[in-house]
Write a structure and sequence with these properties.
alpha/beta
Length: 244
């Protein structure tokens, strides 16, 4: 079985690498027969050139939620610079597993996610990093719409921690104006760091009733990484037949 090379962005915040390491352990526990390696684009070690040379056969799986600049440009460029022709799996989002992970984190924060009545009176802010890529932001808004439609929230508003607004306080105000009796903020981010801290501070200042944790090393994210790995393997296996 080809290895799963998890490619993360990296951060100066040590909590980022610790979360990636915990996620890798979750993946390994789910699929002991698959070798799992980690490489970073920036800030952390090991970098991509240090890892790809020792992997005889692998699939690169980006630890990214949206197909924005890092997925479209940075990862392919880093692999090319390292002399690697590894197949690259799709990004994690969108996926029903991510919605389940968001539910999990809200439940852990004390929200009765399993109650239709609670969901019907709760407005949720899906707080993402934000991107200069319009397609990436459109994908985040689509996730918010699907989350509201499938769970029956009173409302789901998107907010961004960087790039253009709206910000968390704006999204909370919109939910309250629309009649939400309770509000929650759910970071649509994979690891702790500057942007999640900014979201948490804004949620506290704006009086959100519930603040969830980042997606992190939850079982749904681990399962999704393995799903993307398997999808890339199937695509690689069928590519010659499709082009013959």
């Amino acid at each position: 079985m080809p290895a799963l090379l998890l490619i993360a962005h990296g951060s100066r915040d040590p909590r980022h690498a610790a979360t990636v390491a915990a996620l890798v352990e979750e993946v390994r526990a789910r699929r002991p027969g698959v070798e799992v390696a980690t490489a970073y684009l920036d800030h952390c070690a090991p970098r991509i050139p240090q890892v790809v040379g020792r992997l005889a056969d692998a699939v690169a799986v980006p630890l990214l939620l949206n197909r924005a600049f890092h997925a479209k440009h940075d990862i392919p460029a880093a692999l090319r610079a390292a002399g690697s022709r590894l197949p690259v799996a799709d990004v994690l989002g969108p996926s029903p597993l991510l919605l389940a992970a968001l539910d999990r984190r809200l439940a852990e924060a004390g929200l009765e996610v399993g109650s239709p009545a609670v969901r019907a009176r709760t407005g949720v802010v899906l707080a993402a990093a934000g991107s200069s890529d319009p397609a990436a932001d459109a994908a985040t808004r689509a996730v918010a719409a699907q989350w509201r439609r499938t769970r029956g929230w009173a409302g789901v508003e998107v907010a961004y921690a960087s790039a253009a607004g709206p910000r968390v306080p704006d999204a909370l105000a919109a939910l309250r104006a629309a009649g939400a009796g309770r509000t929650a903020v759910a970071p649509y981010l994979l690891a702790p760091g500057l942007l999640p801290d900014r979201i948490a501070a804004a949620a506290g200042a704006a009086g959100a009733d519930v603040l969830a944790g980042v997606l992190g090393a939850c079982p749904e994210v681990a399962a999704l990484l393995l799903e993307r790995h398997a999808q890339a393997l199937r695509a690689t296996a069928t590519a010659p037949a499709l082009t013959a």
